[in-house]
Each structure stands twice: as C-alpha cells, then as structure tokens.
Here is the input.
Amino acid sequence: MSRSTRQAPAVTDRLSTTIKPLGPERLGDMGSRQLRGQAGREGNQQVDEKLQKGSSMRDALVRFAGDRLQAMHQVQSVEHAEMARERTWFKGVAAGRDGQHLPDPTRWHEAAKLYRGGVIAMCNGNLSQGAALLDQALEAERAAFQSVPRMVQEKLDHTHSHAAGAPAELANVGPAAACPVTSLPKELRFAELILNIDDIKEQTPPLDERVRGNAWWNEEEEDQDDGEEA
Here is the structure.
C-alpha cells in the first residue's frame, strides 16, 4: 500500500521567485560588515582580497551543492519508479533477504534541505554558516545512500551509486568567513523536486498471504515453475 499527497511538478525555475536572496544593496550581513569594518585597520586592498577569496570559495561550494542535488534527484527518481515494480522484489522483501527492504524516496529529503539551506546562506553572504550546513548535508547524503535498498542499488550507474566526498574548499572555510551576496543558482530547483516527491510504501502483505491470495504472485510462481521444467 502506498500513499501520495503531492505529485512531483515539472522542472521549473520557480524557486527564484519563492526564495529571494538579499540584493547587492543589502551587503550588510554580519560577515561582510565585519570585513568592511576591518578596512580602517588593514586597508581596502586586504579586505577586497578576503572578499575575492570568499567569492571563489562560495562559487565552488555552490557548484558542488548543485551537482549533489542533481545527482540525488536522479537516484531518487530511480527509487520512486521502483515503487511501482513490486512484483520484481516483493518476495525478497517479504522474506527479509539481506539488503532488501521497501523503497522510500523521502530518504533524500534531509540532505536536500541541508544542501538548499547551505546554498541560500552562502548566496546571502554567510560563507561559514553555508559551509557548516554543507558539512551536515554530506553526512545526511551518506546515510541516505547507505540505506538504499538493494533493488535500487542494482539499477544505479557507477557515478550515482555512492555519496560524494567533501570538497577541499570546505575544510578551508573559517568560523567567521564571509563572501559577497549573489543570486541563487537555478540548480536549487532540484532540491524542490526532491522535496516534492513524498510517496511512501508503508507496508506490504505478509509473504504467506501474498502467495495464497494474490493472482499475479501465483502467476509469477507458475511461470517460474514452467521455465524450470522446460
């Protein structure tokens, strides 16, 4: 039995109208104010160099987050499609075979929320907060991949079969790092697509009940027996 409260929407760029970053005229986030406040002590050149470095790190981390959101969306799509293929995996799940359990596309929600939050923070100028959220997102992504059922893992290609390692820039972001404000990337739409898929297969009938009462299960067993006899 499965339920669905929403249908995944078509891919659009609507996120840019629902989540608005701070505009350039509002570069007064705490991190940027701190850097600008150092201008009198260090000089504008040093501050500009810090902002330029922060901008470069922000861009690299935002690209990384966008790539991970897109990859997770593709894996989630495979898992979502697998929910309709119960005939191919029910017996293994009902028997409790190793690695066989119900598909659950919502397992990707936590990582998607964290990646989205990290990107928004960095695009609003808070590089340190964004990096912290990306670090949490990586952990959530690893947990999601580790819990993917075997029938889904077998359908993933090599590039999307495992979580990503942390980018080098993540380890170089200081606790008060800031960066210039910029617009949100279009790749954030993948976070919305992931979060909009909330189908859950809550349970399946016990194995003995399925064998006794389900026509397609009995037909499948008969087909297998006929093949063996042939």
Observations:
- Residues 82 and 152 are 7 Å apart (CA to CA).
